[in-house]
């Protein structure tokens, strides 16, 4: 699930930890829930990665612990300790790996009131203590949310990569797995994708034996030991409102991608989710919207989705109420649009007002950038007093918790006019009548931010030193062929003249915003052929030889355009790496950036170290490239001729005429003097 920060970090409200299997029982006595039988009977129903061996304990085998951390929108699967569980998660669009979460593992002994191993309760720290003579194992999840290697701890509690550890062999070794939220890099202030720690709760502790005794799921339920135990601590997103990326479909094939990497032309599936409670006696002003608190007239709940120019909604919105009935079966109730329906959809051009409007917080979003699109949903229609109305119908549903879901797709456009801080990104917000403090004062709308893995190019468009290196917004740029700056980069990775662009492709462009930030987003680095070669199919690997130039195609009046392209944009710093490898390295919401040392703006380059006042930021970090501009009246411009606009050439002609007139006058005086 894509949880957002920020924005940027990812915005995830309070999470509820889910206990892993066997968390409170004697590991040697607990039998893990059976997984589906494998076609390979030698694995006894387990994955070969579990390293399950039938029979008695083999104390010559080195045991391992693999942890995979997920965030989930709804109650997820309990961790069963088998690598086969990953198959259960593949189709769950509400699960997203969590990068940068630190876990500690302790070999433990009974403590306090606990006199035996079987008395240990993972969540009760008074029942266990670190076993004498042992040390703490520590590690942090990678971009796939996985930990495979554990380390000794540094003095600050971080993993000491120079001191890898192995778990002890043999019997009678029992451990506690504990999430170290406070010291996790995911929440560090210097993390570009920082998460808001106030919106998270750590997952529940897990108690297990290693190696882990269990039975195989084959016909004979063969007993044995798992020597590579897989645990999947997952957390439930318990906020009243959330937005998630459900998947990315390839522009050419229309098929869902295995990873959430997007480029121009691809379609991204989104889901907006609002929790609504359905209890007999709701508590007023508790921050929870209940069906018995709905009044109707489209004034109960407002959800707004804000899309940057890098995304274009396909207007295929589906709105429904999802719930589990009293038999735990999944049920849905569709909602209809319009004055006589259950919701209204509008597309305001300005930042919409919130339902609980205040002087300090009148709008749904704290800012209102240009070139964004708003989609506003207002719920619910009808009147709460209508005995046969929709609100009464909601109140009669056999469930205490309902989830209002809005799903739709959006196409990546290739336009960078208002690209978010993560490239292909957007925001959403929810406000409702119960979004208040206990004393009834309105609280801010609940905000969510989403993004996907995408390749970007980022730089600043600024004025010259005499103008304080101030931002120069509205400058427009394209990526061009190094050998022909009249051919522009398109979404298929090829260069075309404007009139030759294929119907199924779009050009990439970017416009500097009010801060001077220029962002090309959703670039085609995984299926772009090397320069000078013929087109080829996508490989999901960054090829060597990507070479693009940057060309300024429009400059604000009064400022000079450089007139030529700058070289070069290359991603050779990641050549040969696959999407999965980059996600593992950079995280599930990464922006993949080029080797900026290869991009030179020549005489128009301003070193980032020069910009000490109000440096431009992208993804919470200072950018590294700045393109300087000169006014048409500047005499110190690197350009030979001030040809930008009509005034520059006019001044040149005027000065030339004056010089010519002066020369003719001087010559006339000399001739007259000679004849005298």
From TrEMBL:
It comes from the Bacteria. The keyword Membrane applies. Residues 334-350 have a biased composition (Polar residues). Keywords: Membrane, Transmembrane, Transmembrane helix. The chain crosses the membrane at residues 648-666. NCBIfam families: LPXTG_anchor. This is LPXTG cell wall anchor domain-containing protein. It comes from Bifidobacterium polysaccharolyticum.
